[in-house]
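FIELD: query
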Amino acid sequence: MILPVSVSVSWLFWKVKVMVENAGFVEGTQLNKIAHTTPLVTSRSGVRGVFFNNKTGKWRATLKFQGVSHYLGEYKGLEDAKKARWRAEEEYFDPLLEQYGIHRAENIS
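FIELD: result
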């Protein structure tokens, strides 16, 4: 049986909305992802959003929050790039997490 387009489209929108809510999305951000910023296994820096730029020979720090990419700068040292990323996480992530009563995992590297 084929459903009328209007019924199937409205069901699809409802289903997507439920999936987004179940995934923990709030204000365009997935809370569990920003609460636990574990780096990928292939990360050379050990910090999500910090990578080595081969063209400049420096470490670049970036952050994506609510669909907006933020360039945090390039640094000669890895530690400086990590600190820039952690400061940005505190600035952008912490207020939203606190609003929903979630504590961010500590950075361990």
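FIELD: remark
The first strand starts at residue 25 and ends at 26.
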